[in-house]
Amino acid sequence: MARILVVGSIARDEVVYLDASLRVGAHNQGRWGGVRLGGGAANTALALARAGDRARVVSAVGQDQDGEGLLRELVAGGVDVSLVSRSAAATTRSLVLIEAGGERTIINLARACVPLPADLARLPADCLYVRSADPALTPIMAQRAEWGLVVAHVPPVRAGCLPARILLGSAGDLDDTFLTDPWTAGRRVAGQYLQWMVVTHGGEGAVAYSADGPLRVRAPRVSVVDSTGAGDVFAAGLLHDLARGEMMEAALATAVSWGAASVSYAGSVPLRGFLDRG
Questions:
Q1: How far is the C-alpha of 269 from the C-alpha of 36, rounded, in Å?
Q2: How many C-beta atoms surround the C-beta of residue 56 within 10 A?
Q3: Cα–Cα distance measured from residue 12 to residue 38, given in angstroms and rounded to the nearest whole number
Q4: Distance between CA atoms of 151 and 213, rounded to whole angstroms?
Q5: Do residues 16 and 28 make contact, with C-beta atoms less than 8 angstroms apart?
């Protein structure tokens, strides 16, 4: 059982299913899809817990019914929430618009500030995964990267802001300058610690770049129902293997398999048995 610290958001997602692709500046028809658990840290941690890892989340929720309900759902899913603060003024909320083909658009409505544990640099874990842009994490990541596995999500892409051994990002979130030479761009962000820069390309799969060249894994063809949280589940697959000492080639294949499986069901919370779909 790998021990993985996940820093990021726990959110209340308010879902609307659109009848067609989102049209900017036009009237769009849709239907209410209800409220569900979301947020990058929550999605990743639940996938890890489903796979048998010990996922411990560093996050924050408000002192409200939304926060209480989200924490109960995480605990029921096997996630350790002992480092989740209840000090936020309100729980993070997002509006999720899902098109007929499964593509999603996320609109952040409120975000809870996450206070970092004073001993985060020293907490025992096999891996630290950062899904946050908080600059206060930079020195903590640098300390941990000296002796352990640190994985971080981009953006942000400020020089030196994410001292990590592995960087992970979606091609859709990165500009052409970054994508022209992902390894060099990743080195600028992570500095001397970087070993791999991983870029996901949706249904096409993913590429991991290193000083020795790229590794590519194609995604299997699947019927897309809902792409919400697919990148987070991809990250979980990568962390699951890397925290156990697997090489990048195997970890990337696992991540692509998990990410592909995650788009085949509605919602961002991994279903029990979802690994059998990869």
A1: 9
A2: 21
A3: 6
A4: 19
A5: no
Peptide bond preceding 156: is omega within 30 degrees of 0, i.e. cis? Answer: yes
3 by Cβ neighbours in 10 Å (0-12 / 13-18 / 19+) ranks as middle
Q: Can you read off the two tokens belonging to residue 238?
A: 């990568």
pLDDT value at residue 273: 67
Alpha carbons 187 and 144: distance in angstroms, whole number? 17
Under the banding of pLDDT at 50, 70 and 90, the label for residue 262 is confident
Label the pairing between strands 213-218 and 205-210: antiparallel
**Domains along the chain with CATH numbers:** 3-10+38-90+113-277 (3.40.1190.20)
Do 84 and 10 contact (CB within 8 A), yes or no? yes
Task: Evaluate whether 39 touches 62 at the Cβ level (below 8 Å).
Answer: no
- The residues, ordered by sequence, that sit 6+ positions from 256 with a Cβ below 8 Å of its Cβ are 205, 206, 217, 218, 219, 234, 237
CB atoms within 10 A of CB 118: 7
Q: Where do runs of H (alpha helix) occur along the chain? A: 40-50, 65-76, 137-145, 176-180, 182-190, 230-242, 248-262
pLDDT (0 to 100) of residue 67: 94
Q: Please choose, from the candidates 72, 66, 108, the residue with its C-alpha nearest in 3D space to the C-alpha of residue 89.
A: 66
Residue type, 127: C
Chain mean position to CA 122? 22
Q: Is 230 in contact with 148 (CB distance < 8 Å)? A: no
Percent of the chain past pLDDT 90, that is, above it, reads 81
The token pair that represents 144 in the structure block: 């941990």
